[in-house]
Amino acid sequence: MMDGSIEIETLTLEREGTRIFDGLSLRIGERRVGVVGRNGSGKSTLLRAVAGLIAPQAGRLRVAGVDVARDRAGALSAVGILFQNPDHQIIFPTVIEELAFGLEQQGHPRGVARERARAMLARFGHADWEERLCHTLSQGQRQLVCLMAVLAMEPRWILFDEPFNSLDIPAALRIEARIAALAQNVMLITHDPARVAGYDRVIWIEAGRVAADGPPDAVLPAYVAAMQAAAQDEPC
């Protein structure tokens, strides 16, 4: 197995009685991987499965050798996920509590977790956020809190589910620059092909299956053409 890779073997996954994936297999080891597809194609479900938040009915899914659905402690060091809406992720009132929580789940004593959380805040130039109430921050700032909380746990992979939605242009550019600077491997879902045009690999998911998989300059033109054709076929 490729060191640090995501290994998906004959994955079968159902949600609320609907089969999303039926025998999906992928091996993903590139540093920057984009995932595109229309709404309801299974993109977000795939990300949640890779993060270990959804257990498959059959097949195997490992990240950096960790069975993320069964080994939750190991999953925290293998993969982190940032949801589209940071309010669906933040669970504590203050920034320091939010950053320290995952570290405590990894087994760090509370004092150590808080010190590492403070170091992360200082790294991003926001030491003054320690006692800030999360709900008083802007959406872009709350997304940064979520990113810092994930980075503090030092996972091998970081997954992003439409991180640019609802952000103004400056905030979106800041998030894009932070993603580009990450040392971790990245998998990013987006509706905007331009966001992943410079990535190492793009996977196009259509109705729970891989419609195309390869370099962006091969996958993205086919994806855009298919979406344009679908738009023309639908009544206004």
Describe this structure in words.
- This is ABC transporter ATP-binding protein.
- Belongs to the ABC transporter superfamily.
- GO terms for molecular function: ATP binding; ATP hydrolysis activity; ATPase-coupled transmembrane transporter activity.
- It is a single chain.
- This protein is an alpha/beta fold.
- It has one domain: Rossmann fold.
- Helix content is 36%, strand content 25%.
- It is built from seven helices and ten strands.
- Strand 1 and strand 2 form a beta hairpin.
- Helix 3 (95-105) packs across helix 4.
- The chain is globular and about 55 Å long.
- The relative contact order is 0.17.
Give descriptors for this structure.
4-stranded antiparallel β-sheet; Rossmann fold; 6-stranded mixed β-sheet; 10 strands; alpha/beta; single chain; 236 residues; 25% strand
CATH class equals: Alpha Beta
Mean pLDDT: 92
The computed structural class is alpha/beta
- Our count of domains comes out at 1
What is the helix content?
A: 25-40%
Q: Which value, in Å, is the CA radius of gyration?
A: 18 Å
* End-to-end CA span: 48 Å
Instruction: Report the principal-axis shape.
Output: globular
CATH homologous superfamily designation = P-loop containing nucleotide triphosphate hydrolases
Low-confidence stretches: none
Which strand order does the major sheet show? Answer: 6-7-8-3-9-10
Run of helices and strands: EEEHEEHEHHHEHEEEH
Strand content: 25-35%
User: How many beta strands in the DSSP annotation?
Assistant: 10
Keywords: ATP-binding, Nucleotide-binding, Transport
Protein name: ABC transporter ATP-binding protein
InterPro entries: AAA+_ATPase (IPR003593), ABC_transporter-like_ATP-bd (IPR003439), ABC_transpr_CbiO/EcfA_su (IPR015856), ECF_ABC_transporter_ATP-bd (IPR050095), P-loop_NTPase (IPR027417)
Pfam family, one: ABC_tran
